[in-house]
Amino acid sequence: MQTIDLAKTPLRELNQALQAQAEQTNQTEWVIENPKGGHAIAVGLDAPIEVTVNGSTGYYCAGMNQQATIKVTGSAGPGVAENMMSGTVIIDGDASQYAGATGQGGLLVIKGNASSRCGISMKGIDIVVHGNIGHMSAFMAQSGNLVVLGDAGDALGDSLYEARLFVRGKVKSLGADCIEKEMRPEHVEILKDLLERAGADADPSEFKRYGSARKLYNFHVDHAGAY
Predict the structure, then answer these.
(1) Closest of 156, 160, 165, 146 to residue 116, by C-alpha
(2) Which H/E stretch holds residue 191?
């Protein structure tokens, strides 16, 4: 196990060392001490390594992740796991706004709450939030799954495409073109798998599914007020 103390090692050197594992994966376990809310920690990784960040992070932690498993023992600032491609990112605390934005694959687990715009423009990522999410979450979400064990804020799924949204708690309001949909057996299986992978103790039958009404795919004058 390799331990790097950011109180002694510059962040640039840390990220260079982690990114270098794409060519040489002999060191598979990494521990990062004293992150002190630093920005862009553990970004651009592309190797099947495990990275534990002991503390809270700032902007864009674990961005563009591929293959790696990254765990933050504290909370994360805006843009955690942005444009994630694969692998797993776990946040033990809360996540700030636009968590998992534009994510194309992999699993993002937030054990606390997520702020506004969680999963904005998601393109295949799976996001499981154990707590609540803020307003405008899954805005223009294209594909993937967003699972929320708590409540969702205003305008959930605004301008949604084909992403699936599962919410156990209350939804303050739905965004344009987002509607409640039938929870079919295949959706129960998808949700059950995600809950298990995210370590979430919840019954899939307690959730409601939301998706696109598909009325904004093409402009129609009768729906102009929804744009």
Answers:
(1) 156
(2) helix 185-197
The C-alpha atoms of residue 62 and residue 14 are separated, in whole angstroms, by: 13
Name the token pair of 136.
């405008």
Give the position of tokens 């776990």.
Answer: 90
Over its C-alpha atoms, the chain yields an Rg (Å, rounded) of 18
In 28-106, DSSP assigns E strands to 29-33, 50-54, 69-72, 88-91
First-last CA distance in the chain: 52
Partners of 91 in beta bridges? 72, 110
At 171 the pLDDT is: 98
The predicted pLDDT at position 147 comes to 98
- pLDDT (tens digit per residue) in 13-27: 999 999 999 766 778
Please name the amino acid found at residue 30: W
For residue range 49-95, what is the model confidence (pLDDT) as tens digits?
Answer: 999 999 999 999 999 999 999 999 999 999 999 999 999 999 999 99
β-sheet with 107-110: strand ranges across: 2-5, 29-33, 50-54, 69-72, 88-91, 107-110, 123-129, 143-148, 164-167, 208-212, 178-181
Q: Which of 77, 8, 21, 10 is nearest to 51 (CA)?
A: 21
Q: Please give the model's pTM, rounded to 2 decimal places.
A: 0.94
Number of Cβ within a 10 Å radius of residue 39? 15
Q: Phi/psi class of residue 124: alpha, beta or left (left: φ > 0; alpha: ψ in -120 to 50)?
A: left
Q: How many CA atoms lie within 13 A of 56 on its CB side?
A: 12
φ, ψ (nearest 5 deg) of residue 152: -120, 145
